[in-house]
Amino acid sequence: MEIKLFDSELKIMDVLWREGDTTAKHISDVLKEEVGWNMNTTYTLIKRCIKKGAIERSEPNFMCHALISKETVQESETDELIDKVYDGSADKLFAALLGRKKLSAEQIDKLKQIVGEMK
Question: What is the spatial distance between Cα 17 and Cα 66, in angstroms, rounded to a whole number?
Fold first, then answer.
């Protein structure tokens, strides 16, 4: 089952991925600091993530646990990007990345290394 998360929900998940299991209150405090959200906004988004099956809630203290990994979401988002923007062609996406003027020599070497490891 694939779970589609919106950017705002990914911010919730990102706190959990960075910090591990934590309370809804802590997530709210972090996101108030990082993006200026109030507690109601954060709690609403946490509840949406629970409904979608991305977060599990337990008591006491409204503890939150991520049910999906960052890698799973990255893979899913990458597949969607490839399908939507690059006609399902991963090599077109890779060529676009390599063609970016903003890549440093170090980043280009890293990409070459990744390709080399795949052979």
Answer: 7
For 111, residues 6+ apart whose C-beta sits below 8 A from its C-beta are 94, 97, 98, 103
Residue 23 has a CB neighbour count (10 Å cut-off) of: 13
Contact by Cβ (8 Å): 64, 19 = no
Residues 92-103 as b/e (b if ≥16 CB within 10 A, e otherwise) read ebeeeeeeeeee
DSSP H helical segments within 1-119, as ranges?
7-19, 24-35, 39-52, 70-85, 90-99, 105-118
What tokens were used for 21?
């299991």
What global pTM score does this model have?
0.80
In tens, the pLDDT along 34-51 reads 999 999 999 999 999 999
- pLDDT single digits (tens) 48-73: 999 999 999 999 999 999 999 999 99
Query: How do strand 63-66 and strand 55-58 relate by DSSP bridges?
Result: antiparallel
